[in-house]
Design brief:
This protein is mainly alpha-helical and 50 residues long. The protein is built from three helices and no strands. It has helices at 4-14, 25-30, 34-45. It starts with a helix and ends in a 5-residue tail after the last helix.
Length: 50
């Protein structure tokens, strides 16, 4: 079974996010959109659902 860190890394690299035209968080960061990625993670940690 994967630990939390391995799961997080997998999701950052592989999970497309509809709100960002199905780009991954890694792709956003590579495009220089670090603030967008951080804002997304903040919204998720605050209980954003949508």
């Amino acid at each position: 079974m994967q630990n939390d860190t391995e799961r997080a890394i997998f999701l950052i690299k592989n999970e497309p996010i509809a709100a960002f035209r199905h780009k991954t968080l890694l792709q956003l960061v590579q495009e220089g959109r670090v603030e967008d990625a951080i804002a997304y993670l903040d919204s998720i940690s605050a209980g954003f659902s949508g």
